[in-house]
Amino acid sequence: KLFFTDYGNAAKVERCDMDGMNRTWIVDSKIEQPTALALDLVNKYVYWVDIYLDSVEVADYQGRKRHTIIKGRQIRHLCGLAVFENYLYTVNSDNLSILQINRYNGTDVQSLARLDNAKEIRVYQKRTQTAVRSHACEVDPYGMLGGCSHICLLSSNYKARTCRCRTGFILGSDGRSCK
What we know:
Number of helices: 0
Radius of gyration: 19 Å
Order of helices and strands: EEEEEEEEEEEEE
CATH architecture of the largest domain: 6 Propeller
Low-confidence stretches: none
Number of domains: 2
Strand content: 35-45%
Helix content: under 10%
Number of strands: 13
Strand order of the largest sheet: 4-5-6-7
Shape: elongated
Distance between the termini: 28 Å
């Protein structure tokens, strides 16, 4: 799945398949400007920062179990969001500090470091990476991803895929080759 935020006409947190199909709203009420987004892949939770409401919230992948982790002045101007173990990590763009927030109680907020210029944060650690099983976009015997001549996108599950073409090309009737 692909998770993303939108705060155009109606602010929301959404998800869709990697090929853009099955677009689903996760959260669409009591939300103003969701920006940063982070996933708890193990427990299937999505966290987001709302810069207008000065809040960090969480919900499960279906939009249930929603609650506010932390809200208020101490978390103004946040950009970027990452989750690892018991904490959320974010960047305060006002004073360029990295914040660590306890994701279970929201009361344990610590400034870890200051950076010259940061707008995003990521955690790279083996335990944050899920094991990959074989999938529909694996390289075929001819060296093409999923049998697609240009782009292979996973669809509704890891066994299904959709082929797409680069700009200036159209997908052939076989659903795989680009012309």
